[in-house]
Amino acid sequence: MAKIFQVSARAGMTRVVEPVARGLLRAGVTPNTVTVVGTVGVLVGALGFGARGHLVAGALIVTVFALTDLLDGTMARMSGGSTRFGAFLDSSMDRVADSAVFGAVAYWLATEGNHAGVAAALLCLAAGGLVSYVKARAEGLGMTCNVGIAERTERLLIVGVGGLLTGLGVGPALPVALWLLAAVSVFTVGQRMVHVYRQARQLQPDGQR
Ligand SMILES: CCCCCCCC/C=C\CCCCCCCC(=O)OC[C@H](COP(=O)(O)O[C@@H]1[C@H](O)[C@H](OP(=O)(O)O)[C@@H](O)[C@H](O)[C@H]1O)OC(=O)CCCCCCC/C=C\CCCCCCCC
Ligand SMILES: Nc1ccn([C@@H]2O[C@H](COP(=O)(O)O)[C@@H](O)[C@H]2O)c(=O)n1
Ligand SMILES: [Mg+2]
Ligand SMILES: [Mg+2]
Predict the structure, then answer these.
(1) Is residue 163 a part of any domain in this protein?
(2) Binding site annotation covers 69?
């Protein structure tokens, strides 16, 4: 389900992303520059605006710069191929950006005295990091791990909608979104562990389980 959403959302964005990617390449901008600038933009939106309670501005700025994550890979492919360092940089910067988003939300909820909300945000931070780590470790061991109901896009969308609604006056939306996200993130960690366990069993010779 999550995959179907991602694939169709991505296909819908292609018409916008490809001309922008072509223009940036023509202007001499590299994919790695887009990766870094996109991350800096998310940091500004999350830490500069979200953490200070400007939730609508924060969510909108984070959304714009998070979407540049679709641009860098497209540019890399258009300019004759992705690079190993580019793939490493892209994934690493995703973790920086995600940490800033959930750190900012936790900080703001702390200033509001919403301790339960802080706990939910920290759970999202830890579980979201684990979701990505499990995949990276599996891939490092030669397996695949492209499964799970709450991959990065879904996680950002859930916190984004929650942040936007709370910023627009629906007070409990963000804490509710965070508890929901914490639950689906923990579930996703489980899905990925099971997926890797099954692959590892198939790859391992009998008697070495
Ligand atoms: C303002 C909020 C209201 C909501 C409005 C939503 C508007 C958004 C408009 C449209 C949504 C379009 C969705 C785009 C769909 C993109 C689909 C896609 O293919 O995504 C994947 C892509 C690239 O991923 P990568 O392969 O480069 O990254 C991998 C990923 O990081 C893996 O992580 P894992 O899933 O395992 O955890 C890694 O494992 C892997 O290594 C790595 O390669 O894209 C993205 O990730 C782009 C996501 C863009 C989604 C933007 C939505 C942002 C919405 C709200 C954010 C607001 C945050 C709010 C902050 C609040 C502050 C107070
Ligand atoms: N600076 C970059 C960024 C990405 N890549 C390659 O693109 C893949 C990710 O594509 P997205 O469209 O999802 O961003 C990534 O795995 C790399 O192969 C790159 O080469 N340089
Ligand atoms: Mg990218
Ligand atoms: Mg990225």
Answers:
(1) yes
(2) yes
